[in-house]
Structure to design on (77 residues):
């Protein structure tokens, strides 16, 4: 598993701070040597079978997730 995260804070005034961040998470999914995996796609109502190819074709999941974070901090006193 590899995780990478960046964040920074910007102080707009003594009372207001903005926090922004982005993360990239890569986790190698489990896969079966003989491609004996299947998933059910709810949108198409079909079964998806694993096949030879890249990691998505073999494990039927995307190993990378890019997420964002944003926050505001307001100090009242």
């Amino acid at each position: 598993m590899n995780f990478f995260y960046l964040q920074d804070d910007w102080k707009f005034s003594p009372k207001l701070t903005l926090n922004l961040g982005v993360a990239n998470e890569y986790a190698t999914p489990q896969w079966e040597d003989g491609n004996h995996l299947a998933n059910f796609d709810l949108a198409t109502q079909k079964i998806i079978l694993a096949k030879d190819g890249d990691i998505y074709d073999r494990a039927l999941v995307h190993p990378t997730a890019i997420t964002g974070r944003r926050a505001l901090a307001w100090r009242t006193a």
